[in-house]
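Quick one - first record:
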Amino acid sequence: MQYPVDLHMHTIASTHAYSTLHDYIAQANKIGIQLLAITDHGPEMADAPHPWHFINRKVWPRVIDGVAVLRGIEANIKNIAGEIDCTGPLLESMDLVIAGFHEPVWGPQDQATHTEAMIATIASGNVHIISHPGNPKYPIDIRAVAEAAAKHNVALELNNSSFTTSRVGSAPNCVKVAEAVRDAGGWLSFGSDSHISFTLGNFEHCLRTVQEVAFPEDRVLNVTPRRLLDFLEARGGKPIRDFDYL
């Protein structure tokens, strides 16, 4: 099974990644990805792009070689108040905002603090997706977070790289996240979290997890481009007319 939407990837603008926008477009056409979101790290990460890099993406075509491209960010949750490093003109330039915990910006605390910070981020109205909530370095009350996410129409991510190269030990928590979102009636988002184009659209472990817990496919954002775009519009996003063909 290949879902045609990938919502989490990094380009060489985040210098610990290795592919360009062109690389991702070429790979998307090769494997059948119709819509993707470029989500380089927020500016408080050590090797993140300057805010101007994000704001100037208005020069990007909306559709490149037949692939629809969303202008996104993986922002950093900065504190217990749920503040992120994407505000003002930077936030206004975004189609899609993912946010998560990253050690260089805000180091691990304790479960209660992580939970409060994540729920505050969800409730802020500024974030569409919470990235890799199964990270064992940042334990959370998974059910409380899933219920808050469902209430505020925010998706929790199943991050394929959390099963492979990043955040070792995430897999059991990811299963619990999928179960909790299922029970809360919320949304799941799949992200390859690619740092090189060759892993674009790789949802192998995400798919196995949703099958394991009998997660309903109609609550997965990646199943069709239109589902994802309708989700963004329901959250107050302006319709992107260049994507009307999807």
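second record:
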Amino acid sequence: MKEALDIFLKYVLPFLVAYFLNMILNKVLSKKTLRGKLHLIFLKGIILALIWAVAALTALSGIPAFSKTWETAVASSGIAAVVLGLAAQSTLANVFSGIALSASHSRPFDMGDRIKIDSYDPGFVEDITLRHTVIKTYQNEIIYIPNSIVGSSTIVNYTQEQSFSYPIRVSVAYGTDMQKAMDVIADTIKNHPKHYGKRPVVLCKSCDDSGVTLQALVETEDFRDNPRTCSECLVEIMKRFKEEGIEIPYNKLVLLQGEE
């Protein structure tokens, strides 16, 4: 009985304590609580890793062959650091990059932000761990990007500003009353219920082979509303152009039939 109790205290109890500490920490620092607090999310990951490491070292110290685990770990910490640094360069690079990303006051993103990292599809930041950043796309695809790549990449954040804008372009035929066409585009965008801000400025983007391309920015307060708003504005502009007799040029194929 005493031997069983001794085994429990030495080998099982450390992991039970670590398990309960893990449960408590996850309950106190839940995803809802940590929403928008990227530095605390990463700190939580480090604390959990340390708890399990301490539990493992404590259990190992109960084995006669590892009876001086703690003393050995402290004494050889310098050598261990060198060995680990050589053996796990990519892992350590991810950890340090994660620390830099989460601890910076000017961090490029936070939990819930919609971002684009280099050539990866844009998505929402779901989580950041010791090794990778988790992105969820509009197609509900989960992308795990190593922190070292995130830290050295160009990041576009779509949600840090108060509003989001995207250009729409419409071509009109040569000879069109440009001011009239510009007013139709500007009024259509301005009158859309999701439009945010002042009346947009319509600019002449280019003079092409078959017509003139006009461009205006569609601005919405929430970036999630922008794609649908752009689509609805384009549909309404085409409708208004038809009513006003404004021609949208398109390629035409003319067949000439020769005389026999």
